[in-house]
Design a protein that fits this description.
Length: about 240
C-alpha cells in the first residue's frame, strides 16, 4: 500500500503496514497485531511524540546501559518490525548484544527474526537457547546463557508482564519500553520508558553520552511514570475543549 507522506496518519499507517508485512513473513503473530492496536491507542493519548518524561527515562536508560557490564536487548516480532533498523544502529554503536525472545515460541520464528537482523548486518543471539528463566513454564522461558540469562541489565520492549516479573526476580535491572504506563511490564521496570519503541531507539541513537551524564542519579522511576499517567489523564480530560475536525 502506497501511503502519501501528506496523510495525517502517515507514521501510524506506516507502522501498520510494516506489521502486516512481517505477519506475512511469519515473524509477527495475530496476537502481536492485537497488541499493537492497544499500544497505538495509548500513543494517541501521548500525542504520538516523545514527551519530556519519555526523554527523561531514555537519558537515564542510556547512562545505565553504558555503565552495565552485560546489557542485552530483547527483541520479539513486533520489535523487529517496528524498530529493527534503529536497534541495529544502537547495538553497533555501543556493542550491546541483541537476543530474539518471543512469547509464542517456535524455532521457525526465532530463525526468521535472527535472519532478518542478519540481513540488516547484525548477528543476534537466540538460536542457541540453552538456559531457562526460572518461574516461566514451557518454552516461554527459553533464553541463551550468554545472553539474557547472564545479563545484568535487560532492555525489554513490548514485553509481557510475567516475563518482566520473572527477569526482575532473577535480579536483572529492567529497562521497559511500553506505551502503556499502567501495564505490569511498566510497573516492573527499574526504568520505564513510556514511548513508542521506534522513537525510543531513534532518540537513544541521537543522544550523546554528554547529554546523559548524571541523568541516572536524578532519575526516579515512580515519579517519572506518574508524570506519564498524569499527562494521559489531562489529555483525556481536555477532549471537551478540542475543536471540531
Amino acid at each position: 500500500m502506497e501511503i502519501p507522506k501528506s496523510h495525517p496518519r502517515y507514521e501510524s499507517l506506516k507502522k501498520r503496514e510494516a506489521l502486516l508485512n512481517f505477519y506475512d513473513k511469519g515473524i509477527v503473530t495475530v496476537s502481536g497485531l492485537i497488541s499493537h492496536g492497544r499500544g497505538e491507542a495509548f500513543d494517541y493519548l501521548l500525542g504520538e511524540r516523545s514527551q519530556a518524561f519519555s526523554l527523561n527515562a531514555e537519558k537515564a536508560a542510556l547512562e545505565k546501559l553504558l555503565k552495565s557490564e552485560r546489557a542485552v536487548i530483547s527483541v520479539n516480532g513486533n520489535v523487529a518490525a517496528l524498530a529493527g533498523e534503529e536497534i541495529v544502529k544502537f547495538s553497533r554503536r555501543y556493542g550491546i548484544p541483541v537476543e530474539a525472545n518471543i512469547f509464542y515460541w517456535s524455532r521457525e520464528r526465532i530463525e526468521k527474526i535472527v535472519s532478518y537482523f542478519r540481513d540488516l548486518g547484525l548477528e543476534i543471539l537466540g538460536l542457541n537457547q540453552d538456559a531457562h528463566i526460572p518461574g516461566l513454564e514451557s518454552n516461554r522461558g527459553r533464553c541463551e546463557s550468554k545472553g539474557i540469562f547472564s545479563a545484568d541489565t535487560v532492555v525489554i520492549p513490548l514485553e509481557d508482564g510475567d516475563r518482566a516479573e520473572a527477569l526482575k526476580k532473577m535480579g536483572k535491572f529492567i529497562i521497559a519500553i511500553d506505551l502503556n504506563p499502567l501495564s505490569r511490564t511498566s510497573r516492573f521496570g527499574d526504568i520505564t520508558i513510556v514511548d513508542d519503541v521506534e522513537r525510543t531507539f531513534r532518540n537513544l541513537n541521537n543522544l550523546s553520552e554528554m547529554e546523559c551524564a548524571g541523568a541516572l542519579n536524578s532519575y526516579e522511576n515512580g515519579k517519572n511514570t506518574e508524570m506519564a499517567i498524569r499527562f494521559i489523564g489531562e489529555r483525556v480530560s481536555s477532549i471537551t475543549n478540542w475543536p471540531d475536525l
